[in-house]
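Quick illustration, no need to memorize.
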Amino acid sequence: MLMLSWLSSYRRDSLRADSVAGMTTAAVVIPKAMACAVIAGLPVEVGIYTALAAMLVYPVLGGSRALSVSSTSAIAMLTASAVIADMAGASGAGPVVIAATLAFLVGGILLLARLFRLGFLANFISKPVLVGFTAGVGVVIIIGQLKSVLGVSIASHNTVGILRELPIHLGNVHGLTMLVGIVGIMLLVVMHRRHSRLPAPLVWMALAIAASMQFGLGDRGLKLIGEVPAGLPALVLPVWNLMPSLLPAALGIALMSFTESIAAARTFWRSDDPPIKPNQEMFAIGAANIAAAMVGGIPAGGGTSQTAVAEQAGTRSQMAQWIGAITVLLSLLIVSEMIGFLPESALAALVIVVSAGMIKPSEFKAIAQVKRVEWVWALVTFAGVLLIGTLEGIFIAVVVSMLTLLYQANHPPVYELAYNRSKEVFRRIGENDSDEAIAGLLMLRTEGRLTFANAANVQAKMHDLVDKSKASVILLECSAIPDIEYTALLMLIDAEEKLQKRGVYLCLVALNPDLLKTISRSPLGEKLGNKRMFISLNKAVDAFERGLMQLG
């Protein structure tokens, strides 16, 4: 068990650093956990219970030193969509029970996935698609919290409906509620920019609670969080008959939870840390979700922002999470009564600022500068979350990622090479003015496995380049082709026959041993033989220029 690997070698002199890091992280996790509960449409204590359970269980099984596990804004928003959808049915279950059953199902899916070693799914959603999804969720959350900041009641639950309904209620805005919300947003932004080491969310919540108690804001028309149960959470058992309807949502949330957790763990991995093992992390996150479910929590996962706080605070081991869990427990036992005085608009301000951090135009810009097509995928996912829904958005993200993989697999690059004699290197033509094309010789390169799906595209691209050339010999450089399927091999055989009828000869260069074996067993290998297959481009070019090629 991984716990023994770090606990058995734990150094006593690390306890002070881990204690400071654990309490510092808890100061950020507690208000964020409450914010996640609000996003999910649940009482604030549900978020605290989730953080408590996850922070206790993850260090037992998880391998990341710094990863802070509770919940995230994206997971909470997906949970909200699932809870609303299920409550629209005829189950009769309350939102807390539905959310807990969902967390149990998410945990079960991750444990089952670990059994089948599906840790590779951590890479299943591409970064551009994840950027678009996360930004979309951020916008959805912000729009959803406007009603709390303005102090108005809105019936719609979807983003488009809220935007349509909101202008109708602008005449009913509660001035003091809006003032608290705006002050909160401004203060949180200023503290984040000028005093980044301060736990801004905790400072703001403490100030808002103090003001509420001192000036009786609840009596002045502000809606307060209300009573927060003191003490330990009660045991909550999953409702089995809810699981079939919650399964699609649980699959999406499980993928998002695992993806976010692995991304955060890898981001803050240090060279002296044990390697991050996706399958082990899948098991640990799954167990944390099961634990959260049993105390009436929501689905959990590792968050990048809170993990960054843990790293900056000097976390040395998973002990810091246990210290954080103790801090969370003490807050439940000691200050739960005071939390009830927190104005809803003050918490909404925190939710809005946290969610704004999910929207990163700079990442969209960076993607657009490098890969225009993938920038479009990010925008498609972003629009899908806004217009269709967050729960549907995660499946849009998966589908878009799959389409991206299919597109890339079906459209491998095919390009012409040029030769730099002074450096004796070959590279894409046009990259350097000192490179030259060799008269009568066309050097082509393609990358990736040649399959039945991409054979036609590769053939078309090669055909266009050959037509534009006046070469009598085509060198196909194959070092980046790991394998070739039978359909693609037939395409290559057909291309060679058509070229020879035009008096143009095809030669293959730099085949790996497996590819050479496949080609040699085919009619193409028999036809080309050793005369038209070369070890390297240098050898092939030298034979061509010295007139030593045997093409007949």
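The first strand starts at residue 69 and ends at 70.
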